[in-house]
Specification:
61 residues, mainly beta, two-stranded antiparallel ribbon, 6 strands, 0% helix, Sushi/SCR/CCP_sf, sushi
């Protein structure tokens, strides 16, 4: 039983969805951009014992 993660942040012009709304250990955050924007960075991040992996929030450019 690992630690939960805090909200990972949501870049401008994007939406983020979670496989587990409680952001528990193993939860996956999936990022997508608004139409006309390109996702730069990881589209998916996983909560690993309280830390989002990989590090760094993607952004929409």
């Amino acid at each position: 039983m690992g630690q939960s993660c805090s909200f990972p942040g949501s870049p401008a012009h994007s939406s983020v969805t979670f496989s587990d709304e409680s952001l528990g250990n193993g939860a996956v955050s999936s990022y997508s951009c608004e139409r006309g924007f390109e996702l730069l960075g990881p589209a998916r991040r996983v909560c690993d014992n309280g830390v989002w992996v990989p590090e760094g929030i993607p952004f929409c450019g």
